Request: fold
Amino acid sequence: MMSVFTEKELRAIVRVNKMIDRKIKQGMTIVSPEAAASFFRSRIVYLEHEVFMVLFLNSQNAVIDLQEMFRGTIDGASVYPREVVKEALRLNAACVCFFHNHPSGAPDISNADRRITTHLCEALAMVDIRVLDHIIFAPGAKPTSFAEQGLL
Reply:
């Protein structure tokens, strides 16, 4: 499949992603959903398949790790709450933020997005881990935040 980006643009994306990795290793602090969305957008928005990423944070909202936990096809990815809980506990995370993309170009919240977010929130609440947000990215569109929509 042909990329929608030029070679120069792809190199710029790689540089931004390397900068994100450095910031994560330095314990960057996330102060708002907007900050998280703008910072991680380049990591996910250009992909031609759906991915589900989890940002693990400590009690002061400092980043512990960012992981692409699930990868799917052009129109969906299977997400397993058990695996998210297991990794959050392993990292001793106090809270998490979810990111996924809609390669179709529409960042609208689907019924499936609502269901999996509810399941994740319930599973993580059982072990006292807060979900701060779930942000959906799509090419050429403003990200959609569950927190900003009052859905968390």
